[in-house]
Structure formats: structure tokens, C-alpha cells
Amino acid sequence: MDMNSLKQEVIIYSKEIGIDKIGFTSASNFTELKSRLIRQQELDYQSGFEEPDIEKRVRPELIFDKPQSIISIALAYPSKLKNAPQSTKSERRGIFCRASWGTDYHTVLRNKLQLLEDFIKDKVPGAMAKSMVDTGELSDRAVAERAGIGWSAKNSMIITPEFGSYVYLGDMITNLPFIPDQPMEDQCGTCNKCVDVCPTGALVQGGQLNSKRCIAFLTQTKGFLPDEFRTKIGNRLYGCDTCQTVCPKNKGMDFHFHEEMEPDPEVAKPLLKPLLTISNRDFKETYGYVSGSWRGKKPIQRNAILALAHFKDETSLPELIQIMKEDPRPVLRGTAAWAIGKIGRKQVVSILEEALMNETDEEVRAEIEKGLQFTLEHQ
């Protein structure tokens, strides 16, 4: 079999099905990644969403029989929201990060990878493949880096010369010995903007991320958000793009190649107050197709409450008071109480005091007391 010819055929076909960039690498162990992952684990910097077994993340033979090579693909996504609705004083809006615009990228990339798998298996009977997007054992970024898709940047993302870091990544392990591509030289140079402006200091140093401080991770958690991060969230409902938007390599990068990735402005930048009372059915119908919905509506609602506190939106007080008094979920009751204190000043003291008398959950009571403390500070 002429592997060079087959590789060229795969590259041509990948363009035909809308894959924006493709690279090939060997299936050898990711030795350098292993030491980084061990260090991340020692420092407790992992989010908990990753594959917990480090060996599986760095040794392809543990997850695939006799692997020979790995194919990495990248799809460029939009960075600018066309016809973006404006936030007004009485109608404040939140924002989903760019990676949650349009159809869930897991679905989009899996479909592309399946087409690529079928093409390869049609060309080579007996060919085997295993594809993964984001939630697989391998590190998509480590594969992409070694396959020459881009370089691993200081913001812990892959930056491509063609599309910046606004790319989704996926990979496929195969039992075919494709000729590997060359990795790319790091092009961040002395630039440190992403590290300097990270709102929570999650980028400890260039290329090292403390996931537990990253807003993209924090917006996906389900419990009470630690106090130190509540005022850092701003109006973010899911994810964070700060380390991408400040990157000079992303200047002017905005690609609208894939119709399924085009965002609905009202979904990408929704009104906050309606989110507080949205039903499960309406949430699923409106937001279920975007990647930012994967944790359900509760984290989004908690973040919406924090966003209203960020805006000091007095028009939201009736809804927040109702949540504090009636919502069955302690996290939302407590977060609402915290926000009421932030927004309401003196006029909400009696409301918070009454809620404190009626509340039995200790964590919620602590949040009500924080709210009351805010009102005292502003008297």
C-alpha cells in the first residue's frame, strides 16, 4: 500500500467534507505530556472533567489495539456575533463563550470524523479506527500539537497560523502507518498578554493552567461559587474567552465556514431575567443543542443571578426575591440572597431578615447573612 498516496487522498477528502485542517502523527507515547499531567495532578490543577487515568491519556496502545498513527482535525468557528442584541438597563444580557455558539461541536466533529473513518475503511478493507472529541482519553491538544495543526500556546490552547485559536479539535487513532507531519515551532515569543489579563489568575504561567480557577471551568460547576470568583464572572453564563480575545494571533480571525456553527444571537447572548424562571422543557428546546447546556440549567441560572448582581440590576429584585423564598434548590436560593444584598441596599434589609428567619439550610443562611452584610456596608 502506498501510504503517501493514501494520505493525500485522505487530505483531499477531508477538505471536501469541510474539515479546515488535518494533520498526522505517530501513535507513540506522549512522554512529555505525561510529566506535565503528573505535575498538574500534584498541584491539584485538574478540573475533574478529564480522563482520570494518566496512562490512558499518554499511551494510545492502552485504548486501541496495535495503533500505528493518529489523525488530528481542526474546524474553525466564528469569533464575531452578527446582529448581536444590546444589553439595556432594564433588559440585561448574559453571554455564552464562542465555543458554545451554534450546534454542539462534539456533534459536528464526530460527524466529520465518522465520514473520514468510512472513507478510510472503504479505501483500506480491514482498517481500524477510533475517534474522539474532547471527552476521549487522549489530549486533543497534545495530538494536534504533534500533528502540526498548531503550537501549544501560553493560554493552554492550540493556535493555528490560519485560524488562530478559534478551532475545535478532534482525533482518530488508526492501525494504518500514515507518514507523520512535523510539529510547529512555538510562535508566542515574549508575548504574555493572556497570562497577564486572566481574570482569576488561572494561567499560572505560560502553558500552565490551574483549571479550578479558570472561569470556563467555574461556570460549569453546580455548587455555590466561591466568594472570590463571584465578582469575576461578569455576565458570563458559560465559558470564558478572555485569553483568546486578547491574543494578538487572533486579531482579525473570524471564520463562518460552517452553517451549523452559526450562533442564534438570542441564544448566544440571552436575556438574563427569563433564564431565572425557564422550565426544563423550554431550556432543553432553546439551549439543548449548544455545548453550554451539557450540565443542565442550574449552573446557567446560578451564573445568571451573579450576572444580575454584576449589573446591579434593581429591576430583577422581584424575581430574585421569589427565588430566595421559593426555589427548592439551596444553591439558587443562597446565590439569590447574596445577589439581593449586592443589588438592593437598604430597601431589602427586612426581606433578607424575614428570609433568614424562615430558612433552615445552613449554607443558604450563610448566604443571606452575607447579603445582609452588604446592605450594612452601603448604608
Description of the structure:
This protein is α+β, with helices and mostly antiparallel strands and 379 residues long. It has a domain at 3-85 and 102-174. The chain is built from 17 helices and ten strands. The strands form four sheets. Strands 1-2-7-4 form a four-stranded antiparallel β-sheet, sandwiched between helices. A two-stranded parallel sheet has the order 3-10. The chain has a two-stranded antiparallel ribbon with strand order 5-6. Strand 5 (151-152) and strand 6 (158-159) form a beta hairpin. Helix 1 (3-16) runs antiparallel to helix 4 (105-123), helix 13 runs parallel beside helix 15 (330-344) and helix 16 runs antiparallel to helix 17. The longest helix has 19 residues, at 105-123. The radius of gyration is 23 Å and the shape is elongated. The N and C termini lie far apart (80 Å). The mean pLDDT is 95.
What is the averaged pLDDT score?
95
Beta-strand percentage range: 5-15%
Helix/strand order, N-terminal first: HEHHEEHEHEEEHEEHHEHHHHHHHHH
**Shape label:** elongated
Top keywords for this entry?
alpha+beta, 4-stranded antiparallel β-sheet, two-stranded parallel ribbon, 10 strands, 42% helix
Any chance you could write out the topology, listing elements then pairs?
Layout: H1 3-16, E1 21-26, H2 31-43, H3 54-58, E2 69-76, E3 95-96, H4 105-123, E4 129-132, H5 140-146, E5 151-152, E6 158-159, E7 167-174, H6 193-197, E8 203-205, E9 208-209, H7 215-218, H8 227-230, E10 236-238, H9 242-245, H10 265-268, H11 272-276, H12 280-287, H13 297-311, H14 317-326, H15 330-344, H16 349-358, H17 362-377
Parallel strand pairs: 3-10
Antiparallel strand pairs: 1-2, 2-7, 4-7, 5-6, 8-9
Helix pairs in contact: 1-4, 13-15, 14-15, 15-17, 16-17
